[in-house]
Structure formats: structure tokens, C-alpha cells
């Protein structure tokens, strides 16, 4: 067994998580800080350095051979920079160089958070054993990543598989990205809730207007809530079918908060998929809920770091 470890960082708008991870995907040590998302870039970086600092003082640090980073995007892996939408202080921020300096010049691998979750699901979760897969995160936004030919396919800058910004409605609403009718504009949690409210759904006495509250209303038979989830499912089905038609994936894995809605999402999604994925080579496409939970970003970042090691093929990562 290989005794080397990798360090993993999962950087989002709410928290910065770090871990030491072994070659089987087991998390041995954790560290975490809240993301000071409204502060300047160097203040955010100090929180990252504090997380790394906690890891470097561990007696296990001497066995760490690389660092993997999964970051909210957009990321540019070719330049080593990040510009997360939800961290305004980081625009073209040289994260890879700063992390390398803080980690004692170890090799650093950067991928987007959607790609990180894809790496985790392929290594340990719902896409395990599938050589061609799309994994999606449907929550505040809609992100994703691809596995093609048995390998993670992040693309040159680390953003391949970003299904949230495929347009599925040519005359649809303007998306903040500048395009119209994007999957994210229809299927993200806030947009599911927005559409339900616009069409007359009203929250309960607690005033909760989240997508989870809409899902609860849909489960109790509220027609407006059901219709909002059906519309989201239709947008996801169109995006998944387009991806499958383009690159021949055989499974689509859906995680994130909206993915937790269960049959309220998956039943109309499977039905819609049967009308979009009609060609012979995409007809057997399956859809499954994600399995990796909140550690997916860390495990995926670790997988990306492990894949870059010289012995990666032997390790089967």
C-alpha cells in the first residue's frame, strides 16, 4: 500500500475546508475556516493559509506529496488563478502560487468545484465503474464535470462540464452570465423558488421561501410547487440529453441541495429525459442521486492530486 498522502482544499463562498487524505479516499485530519467572502483577496487568502497551517503542523504532513484544490469558479487551471463569483476579492487571484508557497513548494493541482465533485463521485460514489459520466451539482447555481474514457476531463482551464450555462430555452430569461434560458436560470434552487412565488405559491407560517420549502409543498401536492420542479426537471433533462448526445455519457449523477428533493425532482426528470434522449446511443442513459455528501469537494480535490502522481495509474485513481 502507498503510504503517501495528499492535502485537499475545498474553497467555497461559505467555508474553506482542508484535509489530509490517503490513497483510498479516507480523510485523516480536517481543518476549516469560514470564508471572509466580503473582504479583500489577501484576507481570504489568510483564511486559506490558516487551514493549511493547521494541516502542516500535523505529524502526518511529512507524508504529503501534493495538494489538490477544488474551488468555486470560474477557475483557470492553466494560469493557476481563480475568480469565484461569490468571492469578489478574488479576480484572477494567483491561488496556485500562493498555496504552493504556503505548502512548502509541493505540486498543486487546481480544479473547479463541479469537477472536484465529479472526481469524488467517479472514485467513490454513484459514478463508480462508469467510464463516461456527467456529475452535476444543483444548488444555488448549477455546475458539473465530466468523466470521459475512464478519466476526469476538466478541460484546459478546469471548467469542462459546466452544464449550468448550456442554453435550453432560446427565448428564455436573461441569465446573469449574459446568455438566455440557461439550465441554471431554470433549475437552480433560488430560481425554482422564484418561479413558484411568481406563479402564486405562498410559504407556510415560518416564511421559508427556499427550494427545500417548495419541495415540501410539492410533496404535499401543491400544484404550483410541483410545476416549478417539473420545469426544473425539464431543463435538467434537456441539458443532460444534449451532453449525452455530444459525448456519449451513460450516467448523469445529480447532487447539491436540489438533488436532495428526491422523487419530486427525479420522477419528472426521468420522464422528461425519455422525450429528449431519444437516439439509440443515449436511450439507456441512467440518472442517479449523488452519494458523496458534504465531503465530495475534499475527496475530489484529493483525487485530482493523486491522479497527478507518477504512480497514479498503478493506484487506479
UniProtKB/TrEMBL annotation:
InterPro entries: ATPase_NBD, ROK, ROK_cs
Gene3D superfamilies recorded: 3.30.420.40
A Pfam family: ROK
Signal peptide: none
Stored PANTHER family: N-ACETYLMANNOSAMINE KINASE, ROK (REPRESSOR, ORF, KINASE) FAMILY
Family of this protein: Belongs to the ROK (NagC/XylR) family.
Name of the protein in its database record: ROK family protein
Organism the protein comes from: Streptomyces koelreuteriae
Phylogenetic placement of the source organism: Bacteria, Bacillati, Actinomycetota, Actinomycetes, Kitasatosporales
